[in-house]
Amino acid sequence: MAALKNYDGKYWRDLFDSRIGKTTWPYGSGVWSKKEWVLPEIDSDDIVSAFEGNSNLFWAERYGKQFLSMNDLWVKHCGISHTGSFKDLGMTVLVSQVNRLRKMNRPVVGVGCASTGDTSAALSAYCAAAGIPSIVFLPANRISLAQLVQPIANGAFVLSIDTDFDGCMQLIREVTAELPIYLANSLNSLRLEGQKTAAIEILQQFDWEVPDWVIVPGGNLGNIYAFYKGFHMCKELGLVDKIPRLVCAQAANANPLYLHYKAGWDQEFKPVKANTTFASAIQIGDPVSIDRAVYALKKSNGIVEEASEQELMDAMAQADSTGMFICPHTGVALAALIKLRNQGIIGTNDRTVVVSTAHGLKFTQSKIDYHSNDIKDLACKYANPPMQVKADFGSVMDVLKKYLLSKVPKN
Ligand SMILES: N[C@@H](CCOP(=O)(O)O)C(=O)O
Q: What pTM was estimated for this model as a whole?
């Protein structure tokens, strides 16, 4: 692109003023900022806020309306927490109980887990805070760098094992049967007791009005059951008179629950070999909580959906483009929602909550790959790579001119 050799400030000011109105340039350090501005009073509708109140449940207004024609779509962000995932909710309960047991001189020397990243991060943090040794089994080269560094930094004994998550899970079960290590994966119901509080909190945040749908990404499948447990408890207590329909969303590359659902539940469950997925935290083929998950889905008239790599990455990119910064697993949940919307199963006005399980900052490599258009066999159609530009005023003005004109609303 040719650089603007003779930058004509007045020409551009007049052009923009004529296109978008004189009074729309209140800020900046250039000539526009020298105009006298009286800031308009803003209306509550103008407020752009990530969160409703001071909570972790936010209305995904733009994403819902723009991409799904939905008016009542919410994201429950469980990744805004100490170690950046929903695992903190359960781990505080479990490690507190272990703390108590140790004070009672019970023979618990350490706490251990197999992990795809988030469980080990939470376990190591809470154990470190309590001065309890933690041992984590991680599948080598299968978790994000941000997740790997968490237990390392928190002083856990980290075993990087040359197998997948299911292999690590099998090993930790065998090891904890032999050694005084307390097992911290979600087959331990203490974890679920903590995790179910997210469901109770959703109801409280909606002032005990029950949403129509809650969509949860699923891997080891403790979480979908924990949500059911929380909703069911509120119903039993008479706080609400029904529970939401649950949707469990799986990556198509690791979809044993989806296959079981499609086979009609009655067939015997068959574990699968989980293939590589960007949703690495749910890359699990033999989930420990399969029976609980099936129970939760049956009881809530639930649905299981799956998302391909293309679908989950595109959903994540679109969501991010509306101001979110979600993890790929939340991309799986959104991709499932898109499918259910397209099939007319979830309606325009259905109040729907998508559970975002971890912070997007734990999964930056997948976003970098996508926005660099650098993923084999994937069309990165919403990629937004940075523009390389020469360090001269004319070149910068040239690209900005083109960009801004493409953004001026057409009357
Ligand atoms: N995604 C999990 C896998 C282990 O699940 P858990 O809920 O049984 O601990 C992880 O973050 O490690």
A: 0.90
